[in-house]
Amino acid sequence: MMTPEDGFDARLRAAFEKADAQITPDPAFTRRVLGRLGKSVNPRLLVLGSAGATGSALASTQLERLVDGIQFHNAVLTQVFDTFGTQGIVAAAFTLAAASLAYVLPRVRI
To answer: How many CB atoms lie within 10 A of CB 45?
Structure first.
């Protein structure tokens, strides 16, 4: 078990200070990195977003067929499907898929 008296923090601090003293800042590197961070259009996001939207659209066309043949024995589910209809349920599923894609995709690093 480490205690404050064992000097670990002091040795670690000294090691970081030594390493920091050996680093020389390079303004060109800093400009290059900051320039890449500032780009607002990311091709990866456009490609993945388009692929996800296309997949969601194709899946939604199949959902309508799936939902059409379902018969419920639960009165609540029957009421929901009768009220909103097949197209409404598919539109809601597509909206959820698109919203989740828009929420998750920018935060994921591949």
So the answer is: 12
Three-state secondary structure string covering the chain? CCCHHHCHHHHHHHHHHHHHHCCCCCHHHHHHHHHHHCCCCCHHHHHHHHHHHHHHHHHHHHHHHHHHCCCCCCHHHHHHHHHHHHHHHHHHHHHHHHHHHHHHHHHCCC
Q: How far does Cα 33 stand from its chain's mean position?
A: 23
CA distance 105 to 110: 10
Q: Per the confidence metrics, is the pTM higher than 0.85? A: no
State pLDDT tens for residues 7-47. Answer: 888 898 999 999 888 888 888 988 888 887 766 666 777 78
Token duo for residue 99:
């919203």
- The closest of 71, 63, 48, 47 to 96, measured between CA atoms, is 63
